[in-house]
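Reviewer 2 asked us to include a model.

Predict the structure of this chain.
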Amino acid sequence: MNINKEIIGYCPNFYKIMNFVPYEDDIISEKLIKLYQKYIFKIDINNLEDVERIKQLDHVVNKYIDDYLFRKEMQKEILNIRVKKDAKDLLKEIINSIIKIFNNYEEYTTRVIYISRWI
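Predicted model (structure tokens):
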């Protein structure tokens, strides 16, 4: 099987993401989609950690497209990403930061709801 087809098999939202048309002035969305495409086709398909990371990235970018509030939060936070000078793989570090932003957003927006009983 072609490696690219196998990679796309791990990314169920690939075509939805590639067909997303951002607003005219939305440079961040364009860059994020380019990073997504560049990263998923760069990984080693035999490395389970890389495969898991592209699954997470696919979910994150899909959430970015679907959720307006997350998109605004990501656009604000993505400007604050810092990468160490001695980083070996710059693209991998940026992707890890994007996934971390998503995890923080999920933790922040998901609250424990306490239902009390009225006596």
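The chain has a mean pLDDT of 88. The two ends are 64 Å apart (CA to CA). We have added this to the supplementary material.
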